[in-house]
Amino acid sequence: LKTELYCGHTFTITCDVFLTMHTESLQHENKEDDSSRTQCGDGWGEGAGSSCNIIVLPGDSGVYWCESREGPISNMVNLTVTGGSVILQSPVLPVMEGDDVTLLCKTKTTPSNLPAAFYKDGSLIRKQPTGHMTIQHVSRSDEGLYKCDISGHGESPSSWITVTGDTLTCLSRLTVSPSSSQFFEGDFVSLSCEEDDSSAGWTLRRNTSKQQRTQCGDGWGEGAGSSCNISYIFTLDSGVYWCESREGPISNMVNLTVTGGSVILQSPVLPVMEGDDVTLLCKTKTTPSNLPAAFYKDGSLIRKQPTGHMTIQHVSRSDEGLYKCDISGHGESPSSRPTTTTSPITSSNILVCHLVVICPYFISTLLMVSLYRHRAKGNTLKTNTDERLCEDYDDIAEVTTEHQL
């Protein structure tokens, strides 16, 4: 299992139960790109059962997970395409306490066993003559952000290494108040981690376009128990948020979009039960908020409403899509993708989860990341095309896979 790959190579992501692969873009500052929460085969990757084969290209950066009809339930993996000729290969899944872990620093060209310097959290920890370093009997203190450097070739991207105990903790639930996926810059937002009427021991983390896996209070938000209050939210606070225990991120993910514009679409931030009614509210930053609005789904006008709100009755899977709204003279909102589910997250769901994790191979996602050689001669044309795409992006030469859950 490798954490970093080179542009143009192929890797495979597999769910160990028959789920659906989705991705959510981390480029939240560019909301013109409506690629949030797309499915394997929908413009990226090639599905094969519960696997997805991807030839790595610049636009493939994002958060990946496996999903059932009840919503995202697997671990998350963050793929980041960056520049450079050096990668650090490290475990993509959490490492068991007490195990040995080998990190490999390699160049895109041979030889791959050049002397390398290894860093943890920005500090030099070791220089190795053959480009690999073994951490023996890993513990929680070995968790951190690792990178490596090969003289004359450059520095690798950073990868986060997670250490776990012998059990997995089950689902927590992240809630947002006000309950919306879009906010105006300057709004107050509160996020809370909940599990079976208890919210003790959870930490809120996020990925944004500028920061990866940062904790509430670390330059953003103010912690209050297992809640996090953002008193003045900025556009750079747009990103993916989740709750995390010592075993890793295990809650639902929430994508928050903060706009500096004058129109937002308020829609449910959590999945909606099939059969329920859902109201979408198109509002301006200034009063009044009940102006006439046009509503769009997947780019097509679906309804014009005189008071700025639209109700979808008895929602079903067919109602899922990318929604936005427009208020004449004020502008257009960012896009949001409401989702539906067949059952809520309840204490009984959590009990089942606790029972099943006794056999973790049936509940956790086995993420297989396999590096292949370029396509054989029969696929020379496609391989050359992929190589040209990689060459066109000099600043994108490898893929960093940061295990998140």
Automatic annotation (TrEMBL):
SMART domains: IG, IGc2. GO terms for molecular function: transmembrane signaling receptor activity. This is Ig-like domain-containing protein. The chain crosses the membrane at residues 349-372. Residues 72-164, 249-342 form the Ig-like domain. One of its GO terms (cellular component) is external side of plasma membrane. GO terms for biological process: cell surface receptor signaling pathway; immune response. Keywords: Disulfide bond, Membrane, Signal, Transmembrane, Transmembrane helix.
